Amino acid sequence: MLNILSFKYKKKGTVKGKIKEINYNDLLYNRPNWRDIKKDKSLTRAEFNKVFFEQGVDNQKSYEYYISKAKRFVKNIHKVSEIHRFDNYPSTQAHHIFLASDYPELADMPENIIATTPNQHFYRAHPNNKTSVLDRSYQIICLISKLDSIEIDYYNNTGYYNKDNFIDIINNALEQNFEYTISFEELKHNLMKLYV
């Protein structure tokens, strides 16, 4: 009940004993994580992912479905580029801020996908259209822009994104240990310091 009030009044609540900002997803009862449905509790998620990909085509199709679903979700929310929020920059691309090939466990998370224009995606994010390469200086622009989208979502109370998921992505991909209680401004500042 306290978390419902915390969500309504945009105050901090608790999840699994930790104080954090409450999003709509946190209010859902007994929500399953699809990644853990068939996972043996004795395996880490990294170990399970290795087994998952070795099992074959059915799992690969399922994995690709969840990625395309997350990309569609982001493009439906953002009709214009999240990097330049002007009407004359329509977004037609969904870009993984951290490559799906490097971080398959993050590939289906909307907080790791940013809506871009084709030029931003294939020219800036992936120099010379080499999709296996990321421009690190543009990656921080994508991270800050995505965090802006998450902050706008939080203050508008729409529940599309989860700040804690974004922090999990950062902690995993950049090997950091940011707390869930960190403010948006402090998180932006710390991200900028990592890329200097």
Describe it for me?
There is one protein chain. This protein is mainly alpha-helical and 196 residues long. The radius of gyration is 17 Å and the shape is globular. The chain folds into 2 domains: 1-29, no CATH class; 32-194, no CATH class. β1 and β2 (18-21) form a beta hairpin. The model has no long low-confidence stretch (mean pLDDT 85). It starts with a helix and ends with a helix. The chain has 8 helices and 4 strands.
Gap between N and C termini: 43 Å
**Spans of 5+ residues with little confidence (pLDDT < 50)?**
none
Q: How many discrete domains?
A: 2
Q: Within the largest sheet, what's the order of strands? A: 1-2
Largest sheet: 2 strands, antiparallel
Mean pLDDT: 85
Order of helices and strands: HEEHHHEEHHHH
> Given the structure, what is the number of helices?
8
Q: How many whole angstroms does the radius of gyration measure?
A: 17 Å
Proportion of residues in extended strands: 5-15%
Structural class: mainly alpha
